[in-house]
């Protein structure tokens, strides 16, 4: 294995750094008014989720702590991680320390029932060692037949082993474990250890990891760059390119930092709160943990005393972000005194992290989701490279960061393209950090070889389409995370990936053209389904979270500058950047090599069936039509996020104008989560709409349909079958069914629904026309030509009435139940905390009644409505001959709508269907089809939303056969279609794959 972290010198380096950390006598028993020692019993013994914690905050050693003759034990304020004190134990070989108290053990089944997910009863403890030794500690719970494990002592600083009783220890745990004995083994001389925060708690079964001091059943292998033993000589060009990349990264992280008095005061103020000090080599300060390390405490269930102590911990993310700010000031200040101050602060913070146990070989139970909380640590190391090297800290910190990056071994850091390597979290949080690790490699041959491997890896990674539901890019332009298209993750990943492409541009390590083109594809797709915010139906567990193209505008510029194969800036991306950012084109003429003007807003229809989504754009408006099926989840619901988001994708049809969504009333304050625009829902009380389980809910079903197609990039069709699973019938009605379609023609949408049914007789079923908050931009509401200004206001309309909402969208309801309209002060619930929220809202919906059977609706939306246009529309709807569209079919088999103005017919076929249409006689299977005949040419668009893939497979072909009236031949050759004549009919078979629409033109024979 070729490793670059030089582990062979790590122990010596850390020992040197912490060499002053030896016991030097002094106050052992803390003075002052201190609360008594915590008892290791749950204050609520009926709550298995309440951690059983021993702290050592009393004036004296708890009476249940005993040591053998020759050993001593005392409380001390010299070191602590939990509160102000720990237990200091001067031990002798084979002389045990005993905690004569009881711990409650819960079986995996009991833990699951309490936590709602696969869980374990876990023991963890904090141990501080000042002098490494070859021996180990043996931990024994209860009798000799109960649980036991050993912990090595070859380390310096704090460590926190964490082991699942039932899985990682020897012996058989009893429901009550009577006592804990810790015995030093395998040593001839005594020593000293500090012990703090002894805990038994319930934790996720996945997160008790082996490290250099304890062995569990879960081993996370270290990063292995896999370089050959003999490396080629480096060239001046390769070294120069590495230097350029490094300098550009340095410039990026320094950014526009100023060493102003305000910035310095803020740094000093925050730094003081951490209470860092180093005296006689002993480092003290606030306890640092990653956010995910707190999971094991189950904070919501802690006793008040324990909760107060845990609240005092500081998140590594916050701590390392201050390190980055200090490093940035160090780079920009001209004041030598300030520079020395920043360096000293940074070095002490670095030593504190090592002392806290953030060292190579230390799992600290488990440090998962590593990238989010630590990216600033990596960047600060790049900024402070020389200062760390001078202090002897660069090596141990570089080694520690590589060790903790092992969580991303298969997800990027090994630099091998595989099923897990397109991880969005890797791009978002650690791709640049990875580059930093490579650029800080001291050996120049290895540094250059690593950068070559990195460039090839990123190229292969970006160019691949991963199988199944793995993270990565998809052929329709979507990007997967958490088994679905997820802008909340992918947008940040795009930005970082584009920056990587930019940094490597024009160097021997630059990305391949296929990689840049695939990244370009998904980024240009993102600017189609965002305006600049994506629709709520696409936002997973982060509704109204401010996900926006505005936040990643630089990514479009970076990727544009990464260039084309010809080495010039990419004009498409440059134009997209200028529209999104709103920047002056003249400013970037030099950078882009020419004057590039902003693009216009994308227009027309787009299909994204990896998201069960159709997009229609007209003028500055974007319509998001969103469904779900066996491949695409309805929404991501956590017990602490998006609790009420069940209806995000229930055939929703959200219309957004260009601009911040909050300016147009899309905000959770007062938002009725039952009324997602366009969705058909059962209007439930909050307790029934709430998350149906304690952890993640991502509804899927067995429907292979649900998706969209587009014709000529201008017209679109979207079909949705609603089927609920039967897993949580008390919350989610398994009898709830519906068929829904949307057909889009320029400025017009035709929406039809049928077969709406459920058995919830106590609650009404609704199809929402619109919902938004009242803002400066959404005050207008017009009903049948009359402006509504009253507040509050409510009315009931009937089919044949029309409205214009506050964004200029007109609604004419042709069929359905009564139409309810409200302008009112509305109470809702926060999607995270469940606390009440309030807002002034406007909404309208079709009321299908309680427990409907076979309910339907039909309405039209005009995207550029005026009272005059809506009056004319209403007049035309009276006559079948003048009606702007025809509903040719609307039942459980198919919805077919013909638009008279464009001559386009749209079909959502839910199964095999025979038709009596002018052109199509039959559609062989569930699919979305559009047809248009002009001048003897029949244009057809066919998409089968059935992705036909499994967890570990790519999408496979799912043919659709269209039987046409008459004899037709292809106007152009296309290997994706096959044409066969059967008498006076023509069968055109479309080889559909990836949910992508196939468009063809046919000539009459």
Automatic annotation (TrEMBL):
Q: Which InterPro entries match?
A: Chondroitin_ABC_lyase, Chondroitin_lyas, Chondroitinase_ABC_I, Gal_mutarotase_sf_dom, Galactose-bd-like_sf, GH-type_carb-bd, Lyase_8-like_C, Lyase_8_central_dom
Q: Which residues form the signal peptide?
A: 1-24
Give every Polysaccharide lyase family 8 central domain span: 609-862
Catalytic residues, chain numbering: 369 (proton acceptor), 482 (proton acceptor), 489 (proton donor)
**Taxonomic superkingdom:** Bacteria
| Molecular functions per Gene Ontology | carbohydrate binding; chondroitin-sulfate-ABC endolyase activity; metal ion binding
Q: Which residues form a coiled coil?
A: none
Q: Which GO terms describe its biological process?
A: carbohydrate metabolic process; glycosaminoglycan catabolic process
The record places domain Lyase N-terminal at 50-214
Where is the Lyase catalytic domain positioned along the sequence? 230-583
Q: Where does Ca(2+) bind?
A: 55, 57, 196
Q: Which Pfam families match?
A: Lyase_8 (PF02278), Lyase_catalyt (PF09093), Lyase_N (PF09092)
Per UniProt, which keywords does this protein have? Answer: Calcium, Carbohydrate metabolism, Lyase, Metal-binding, Signal
Cellular component per GO, a single term? extracellular region
What is this protein's function?
A: Broad-specificity glycosaminoglycan lyase.
Homology family: Belongs to the polysaccharide lyase 8 family.
Q: What is this protein identified as? A: Chondroitin sulfate ABC lyase
Q: Which organism is it from?
A: Photobacterium gaetbulicola Gung47
